[in-house]
């Protein structure tokens, strides 16, 4: 029997790899998304990879089928052939799209036929001939230009017969007779056909629409739901033509509802034609509403809603995968068995950045690292960083110019501004920004926000992925907030926020700077003036300890000196890292990395070492000095907690 930890590690990462009953059990409702999506209107659902588009489609399919309706599910990854999908200099875009449409319509016919075999109320004696006529019309070929056929046929026959009779009489009166018959026959046929001209697909939209309408009338409930997944797998240049043909054939039938799942920036439903019209779908008319899943689960927009969603996400996935009934029936009991505390759950939600697939990967990796133990903040950060470096960042390494732009954004936003978000003018179309967004290394929080003193323009608010700065948390380089507004850091954006213009990312400045392409891989992205070393970029303890420290610890004085509180705290950090003895330079490193919030307050090792030699520090009861090594090392006394409570008037950190 699997444990909770093992189920978390082996949770499926993609919806299409599990049966429908699993998808129904693991589905999590997000507000009114499903109610909006299940209406009888043609719709487009947008979302980056991993946001749950396929899961939503399959849940809708199961819901309609449970009510006796017919649902077709088209995966555009499997549609088409080399002649339609890929570039061919001899074929126009419209002809390539026609071939792709023909394959799609044939798949519709096959799925209707297969589905109707399972419904007793379907009359196949009437439906099958209609489907045959439909597929014949969808594959109709006509001749373009003059068509000639030349047939050459040649027959040949040859026959040969010979007879031979020989007689001889020997001197001894012996008689010898030999007779020989020889017959040869041969027959050969030859047929040569030569055709000149060109056959092309000619589909009559009106005829196909009428046939399809008659077919739907023979179906249960006289309705048909068509779910089109992986639309963005269709070549971008073909998408408007395919969308236009579907609009004329399928969208024209009121009893057919079409839902299309697409990825933003990889979808093109409409282009302008040469005569001033358009080719494709009119989003606000042909597809009445569109849904963007990226807007519903961003932590910075509504933390309570996001926490509830991701809490239910992992609970329902584990519950659906549980074969031994070991998962508690109460969700809160389950969460308490998985996470050490509420901050760990909230850190998990923040690390997921509103993407369910990322959340599942992170919780699976964290559970693997904990080996059956509860998951804490530290484990979430390490797992998120691992997922970022081993998977998400790999996707963008194929485009060096995208890596270079990300390196510039990280240095500007985190390195200089100490924030994790930025503004981009909403009417700016930048392919690299779109690519980073699709790769889930930046995230869109809000659209159409305002900036002070700029009345005529709107901006989009983006944030850097958690993996970009997870290794900086609890260090002096950690982002202090989402944005900085008049020296105050904004942690959560409000609906009516008007942001400071210093948060605008000047992309034009970046492209005009002519920067040398020194960075070609995400592993090479580093921040300037970092004080942490390679072995401390991954935190090795939870950050609850820092909540026990008094505020403004670096500025406090005890007995007239700042060195007593910061050295005291530095040794606590070292002890939490399982380091009993520490040198002056090691204590300084911990202070600069985890305590000092401003670079001007960074301590020089010589200052710490000098303070540790002073009579004032050596007389402290919480400090123990050992001089057996080449240089003195220091540790905490057994009763250090008493001194902590006396000095800071608060409970001591838990080590």
Verbal overview:
The structure is a single chain. Helices cover 39% and strands 20% of the residues. It starts with a helix and ends in a 7-residue tail after the last helix. The radius of gyration is 37 Å and the shape is elongated. It folds into four domains: 4-31 and 296-375, no CATH class; 43-141 and 202-295, Rossmann fold (3-Layer(aba) Sandwich); 396-524, no CATH class; 543-648, Orthogonal Bundle (Arc Repressor Mutant, subunit A), CATH 1.10.10. 35% of the residues are buried. The protein is α/β, with parallel strands linked by helices and 655 residues long. It is built from 24 helices and 17 strands. Helix 12 (342-352) runs parallel beside helix 14 (377-396), helix 13 (356-370) crosses helix 14 (377-396) and helix 21 (584-595) crosses helix 22 (605-612). The strands form six sheets. Strands 2-5-6-1-9 form a five-stranded parallel sheet, with helices on both faces. Strand 5 (224-229), helix 9 (239-249) and strand 6 (256-262) form a beta-alpha-beta unit. InterPro entries: ORC-CDC6-like, P-loop_NTPase. This is AAA+ ATPase domain-containing protein.
Descriptors:
24 helices; 655 residues; five-stranded parallel sheet; Rossmann fold; 17 strands
List the helices and strands and how they pair.
Blueprint: H1 4-9, H2 20-26, H3 33-37, E1 43-46, H4 53-66, E2 71-75, H5 82-85, H6 93-116, H7 124-138, E3 141-169, E4 175-201, H8 205-217, E5 224-229, H9 239-249, E6 256-262, E7 270-272, E8 278-280, E9 289-292, H10 303-321, H11 331-338, H12 342-352, H13 356-370, H14 377-396, H15 400-416, E10 421-425, H16 431-438, E11 442-451, E12 454-464, H17 466-469, E13 483-485, E14 488-490, E15 498-499, H18 507-512, H19 544-547, H20 563-576, H21 584-595, H22 605-612, H23 615-618, E16 623-626, E17 633-636, H24 640-648
Parallel strand pairs: 1-6, 1-9, 2-5, 5-6, 11-15
Antiparallel strand pairs: 3-4, 7-8, 10-12, 11-12, 13-14, 16-17
